[in-house]
Write a structure and sequence with these properties.
The chain is an alpha/beta fold. Helix content is 35%, strand content 31%. It has 8 helices and 15 strands. The chain has a 5-stranded parallel beta sheet with strand order 2-1-3-4-5, sandwiched between helices. It has a 5-stranded antiparallel beta sheet with strand order 10-9-8-12-11. The protein has a 3-stranded antiparallel beta sheet with strand order 13-14-15, with no helix packed on it. Strand 4, helix 4 (85-93) and strand 5 (97-100) form a beta-alpha-beta unit. Helix 2 (37-47) runs parallel beside helix 3 (63-69). The longest helix has 16 residues, at 124-139. The protein starts with a strand and ends with a helix.
């Protein structure tokens, strides 16, 4: 029997995959269905499953964040993803299995069979690093519409993003600001897979450029550029969870 957890922010995807596993892979015992990255982290730590079916593009805490927060535990990973062909090759190169959405029953059966053949525990931290390294060429820059055309920006150079109605101001490490005709939600979607977190309705930050977290009433975050930003109460726990393993 293989113990497993499914993590996906889409309720229909959770239910369908759970149903497919019961129907086609009876050797897999699903311990919990998690509809967010933060719940997934908690479930992995609590149950310590042998296998995790993991969505990548989830709000606030992505699949990559889940891996980073639980890399000290040993479990096998099967990504459920809609990523492009290059990224899929990167998954394969990193020896991390994947299933394309919508999940095909035959592909699911083969993935579970491959998992059952693993005789050694997976070096998750090493595979994650390899995965991120191979994804880097396809995710290195994002295009932002600006007054003078399109601005290409490396996400690692972004300190934070601030909403201004239907526009977003991007603050870079260099001190430069870019005003783009994209909503903060659109910018957040463009940065999926990188270390960004929506700490407030108006603020999206690069967690790599956090200098200090103030946990007092309400809470706030001090960034590399000196900005002090409010931390939403509803997002505080998920945000702090990212840093607890550091």
């Amino acid at each position: 029997m293989i113990t497993a957890i499914i993590i996906d922010d889409e309720p229909s995807a959770l239910d369908v995959l759970n149903m497919q596993l019961r129907q086609f892979c009876p050797e897999v015992k699903v311990l919990e269905l998690c509809n967010s990255g933060i719940k997934g982290i908690e479930a992995i730590r609590q149950h310590q499953p042998q296998l995790v079916f993991l969505d990548i593009e989830m709000p606030h805490v992505t699949g990559f964040d889940v891996l980073a927060a639980t890399s000290q535990l040993d479990y096998l990973v099967v990504f459920t993803t809609a990523y492009d062909q290059f990224a899929i090759k990167a998954f394969k190169y990193a020896a991390v299995d994947y299933l394309l959405k919508p999940v095909d029953a035959d592909e699911l059966i083969m993935a579970v069979e491959r998992v059952s053949r693993f005789s050694q525990k997976q070096d998750l931290a090493g595979k994650l690093n390899s995965l991120l390294k191979n994804l880097q060429p396809s995710l290195q820059r994002i295009a932002l519409p600006a007054d003078n055309g399109m601005q290409l920006v490396n996400p690692t150079d972004i300190v934070r993003c601030e909403s201004d109605s239907n526009y977003t101001t991007i603050f870079l490490l260099s001190g430069k600001k870019i005003v783009t005709a994209k909503t903060l939600k659109d910018v957040e979607e463009s940065l999926t897979g990188f270390s960004f977190f929506r700490i407030h309705q108006s603020h999206l930050i690069n967690t790599s450029h956090v200098v200090q977290i103030i946990k007092g009433e309400g809470g706030s975050v001090i960034m590399h550029d000196g900005a002090s930003l409010p931390l939403s109460r509803t997002r505080k726990e998920a945000f702090l969870e990212i840093f607890r393993k550091l």
